[in-house]
Amino acid sequence: MATTTTGIPEEVLRNEELIKKLEEIAKDAALMSGILMRTKETPNASEVVGFAPFTLFPSPVPSALFQQALAVQEQFNLLVDKISQSPDFLEEALSSTIKVDEFTAKLFSIHRQVLQEGRAQSIVLGLNRSDYMLDQGEDGSTSLKQIEINTIAASFGGLSSRTPDVHRHILRVAERLEDQKKILDNNPAAGLAKGIAKAWELYGSEKAVVMFLVENVQRNIFDHRYVENELWSRNIPVVRRQFEDVCKTGTLDQNKRLFVDGQEVAVVYFRNGYMPQNYSSAQSWDARLMMERSLAVKCPDIGTHLAGTKKVQQELARPGVLERFFPSQPDVVAQIRATFAGLYTLDMGVEGDKTVAMALAKPDQYVLKPQREGGGNNIYGQEICQVLEGMTDSSERTAYILMDKIRPCPVLNYLLRPGAPLRLSTCLSELGVFGSYVRQGKEMVMNECVGHLLRTKSSEHADGGVAAGVAVLDNPLLV
């Protein structure tokens, strides 16, 4: 497996004495900078914390592709927002999926109920993250390819705001002064908070709170806290609640204002609710419906949540579909389409049968993706054959989509994890770009690209993010 040579030189990476010194300095710098996670043993207490896993060095990213990812983000914000307001398209795109995927069906049922009743709130807040890998063509060229867009609970905007200083410090100590200038400032936490603050302000009640809806295991709390503290610095009150709290104390008044623990909620920021196991009971689903029916601004609302499904991603890649959302804007369509990898339907019928045959013939060229968020769900290689052979003629296959496997250029780096021995690894990186937008009625009040995230993992791991324990935080070293 060839590795790129445009990042940190190999003689630096293989200088054992230097690496040992940098390891100690890096860990301390991470702790001093607040790149923190709670421990597995005490995930709900902050008495003992460790550093969040990160790379010793920043990883090389071609500057032109990095800028391309930033430049298209505002268009992706608009696209997600347009999809969320297109019930006919969502119904069409997800009609096969909701017959076989219970989780998506339950979300869609809430969507239908809200539409029938009429949306109570005209303010829409979207905080998303579009994830990419750099695909190496057979001719040696590199292109930006979108893996997915996360429209709910997009994480690491907080911690990634703190990593640039750590990598700059490491490069200074390693006497790589020119390299440290290639690390950009990055503060997604401020941009995400700016969107939430705008929505809170438009809601128009100073006493109303922003409610972070969180999981019951909160190892990654510091990532949230950076966004939270940005809001507190604007004198916007924040509370953290779980589904259980909303079930027990949540109510709607006659104007559909949402109250939880007696406090009016202006904005519900979902950092939970993206996986089936997040809904532990029928009451959790009732709580989600109540929040969706309420006057509170939802981030995301149910339509925006559904806009981020894998099936919608695959439908968008069909010829003519982007044009439906951006009529007479061929430049925008071309800009978005340039980032799409090959995506294929598994719906019943000739087209889906063709996809199955293609995947079975060359499983190493594809990834099989279910309608799930949270990392660690995708299926690769021979496992694709095992899964598809079991449901070739069954509608169960429509719960998945097939995507071309991206072939990124590996780089050498060290992955720092608490308690893990340091070793030089062959690594692959994934670039995320954060978007923040607020719409009131038909007016787009805010639409911005608010920062980036680089996550890197050992090439032996096919799938999974930082929270899933596979990838670590990183920074782009622009080359």
Summary keywords:
single chain, 479 residues, alpha+beta, seven-stranded antiparallel beta sheet, six-stranded mixed beta sheet, 21 strands, 25% strand, globular
Offer a quick outline of the entry.
The protein is α+β, with helices and mostly antiparallel strands and 479 residues long. It is built from 18 helices and 21 strands. Helices cover 38% and strands 25% of the residues.
Q: What's the tally of helices?
A: 18
How does the helix and strand content classify structurally? alpha+beta
Mean pLDDT metric: 95
Give the overall shape.
Answer: globular
Provide the low-confidence segments as ranges: none
Secondary structure: helix percent = 25-40%
Radius of gyration: 22 Å
Strand percentage lies at 15-25%
User: How far is the first residue's CA from the last residue's CA?
Assistant: 21 Å
| Major sheet details | 7 strands, antiparallel
The beta-strand count equals 21
What does this structure look like?
The chain is of the alpha+beta class and 479 residues long. It contains 18 helices and 21 strands. The protein has helices at 10-13, 16-33, 63-84, 87-94, 97-100, 102-117, 163-173, 177-180, 188-203, 221-232, 243-249, 282-293, 302-307, 310-316, 321-325, 330-337, 350-361, 382-389; strands at residues 36-38, 49-51, 54-55, 59-61, 123-136, 142-150, 209-213, 238-241, 251-252, 258-260, 263-270, 297-299, 343-344, 366-370, 379-380, 400-404, 411-416, 424-440, 443-458, 472-474, 476-478. The strands form five sheets. Strands 3, 5, 6, 17, 18, 19 and 20 form a seven-stranded antiparallel β-sheet that branches. Helix 2 (16-33) packs antiparallel against helix 7 (163-173). The longest helix has 22 residues, at 63-84. It is globular and about 70 Å long. The protein starts with 9 loop residues before the first helix and ends with a strand. The mean pLDDT is 95.
